[in-house]
Amino acid sequence: LQAKALEDLRNVADEVALQAWRVAYLGRNAPLMQIFSRLGQLPKDVRPQVGQRANQVKQALEAAFEERQAALRAEALRRALESERLDVTLPGRRPELGGLHPTTRTLRRIVHIFAEMGFQVYRSREVESDAYNFELLNMPAHHPARDLWDTFYTTTPGVLLRTHTSPGQIHVMRERAPEPIRVILPGMCYRYEQISARSEIQFNQVEVLAVGHNITFSDLKGTLNTFARRLFGEQARTRLRPSYFPFTEPSAEMDVECFVCGGKGCTVCKGSGWLEILGCGMVHPTVLRNGGYDPEEFSGFAAGMGVERITMLLHRIEDIRYFWANDVRFLSQF
Ligand code: PHE
C-alpha cells in the first residue's frame, strides 16, 4: 500500500491532483484509515503490531504529502516569477499631466500685468439685465448702437446674457462711489452669432476701468501702451484709431503692429500690418452719472479686450473654434 501510494504521489503534478491523492490515501474512507477503525475487531495479540505498522505508514504518507506539497508550491512560484517577470531596466511611462487652458494662461498674464499697475480684479455677473448691459451704458431701448451686439435674451423679459464686460463698470461704480476706482473685470461674454473661425458665441473679455480726479486720455494711452509692451514684448508698437462706443467719448481702438510680418502686411493681419486688440475710451459723462459720479468732478477711462483674440495673436492660432473643441492635440501644446 505504501509503495503504491508513494508512486502515485510522484505522478501528482498539481494542487488539485494532490488533494485528490490525500483523500484517496489519508481520507476517512481510505483503506489505511479503515484499518484504524477496524482495529477493535482484530484479535488482541496482533492489535498492537497492526496498529503500530499502520501508524508508521500513515506518518510516512503524511510526511511524503507535506514534502510533495512544498515542492509543488515552490515550482508554481518559480513558474509565476518566470512568466510574470518585470524588466526593471525598461524606461518608465511618463504620467500624463493636465495643463492650463491657453485662455486661462493669457487671462493670468493679463491679470498679473494690471495687478502690477495697481488694478484689482472685480467679479461681475454673466446673467445681466437689459439696464446694465445697455441702458445705463448710454443705450436706451431702440438705440441703433445696440445692433453692435447680437444678444442672447432669456425667456424672462429684461434678462439677458451679457454681450460684453462693460455692465460691470456700473456695478463697480455704484459700489465704490465716490471713491476712486482702478479695477479690471475678467469674465465670459455671450453673443448670438454665426460661429466661424473668427467668432464664437462664448468668449472671455477683460474690462479695464479707472475713475478718479484728473484722469485724462494720456493716462489711458500710457496704461494701455505699457500693458501691450508687457504682454507682447518691449519692441511691440501700438496705435490708437478713432472709433465709436456709446459709453465712451472719445472712443478708440488699439492695434499692435503685426509681429508676423513686422507691419509689412501678411495673411495674419490681412495685409494691413496691424492687429486690433481692444476697444477703449474716456468714460461717457452719462455713464459716470449712472454710476454715481459727478462728471464735473470725476473722469475716467475704460477698455475692453477679447482674451481668446489676444491668445490667437500670441500663439498664431488661426481658428477660434479650437478654444472650445477640447481637442487634446490642441490643448497639450500650451
Ligand atoms: N465693450 C466694448 C465691446 O465689447 C469694448 C469697450 C470696453 C469699449 C470699454 C470701450 C470701453 O466691444
Automatic annotation (TrEMBL):
Cofactor: binding comment: Binds 2 magnesium ions per tetramer.
Subcellular localization(s) per the UniProt record: Cytoplasm
Binding sites annotated in the UniProt record for Mg(2+): E249
Entry's EC annotation: 6.1.1.20
Major enzyme class: ligase
Primary localization class, coarse: cytoplasm
Keyword Nucleotide-binding: yes
Record-linked HAMAP family: Phe_tRNA_synth_alpha1
PROSITE patterns xrefs: AA_TRNA_LIGASE_II
Catalytic reaction(s) noted: tRNA(Phe) + L-phenylalanine + ATP = L-phenylalanyl-tRNA(Phe) + AMP + diphosphate + H(+)
Annotated family: Belongs to the class-II aminoacyl-tRNA synthetase family. Phe-tRNA synthetase alpha subunit type 1 subfamily.
Cofactor(s) for this UniProt protein: Mg(2+)
Keyword Aminoacyl-tRNA synthetase: yes
Protein name, per record: Phenylalanine--tRNA ligase alpha subunit
Keywords assigned by UniProt, alphabetized: Aminoacyl-tRNA synthetase, ATP-binding, Cytoplasm, Ligase, Magnesium, Metal-binding, Nucleotide-binding, Protein biosynthesis
Self-association and partners: Tetramer of two alpha and two beta subunits.
Domain Aminoacyl-transfer RNA synthetases class-II family profile positions: 110-314
Pfam families given in the database record: Phe_tRNA-synt_N, tRNA-synt_2d
A molecular function (GO) term: phenylalanine-tRNA ligase activity
InterPro entries named in the record: aa-tRNA-synth_II (IPR006195), aa-tRNA-synth_II/BPL/LPL (IPR045864), Phe-tRNA_ligase_II_N (IPR004188), Phe_tRNA_ligase_alpha1_bac (IPR022911), Phenylalanyl-tRNA_Synthase (IPR002319), tRNA-bd_arm (IPR010978)
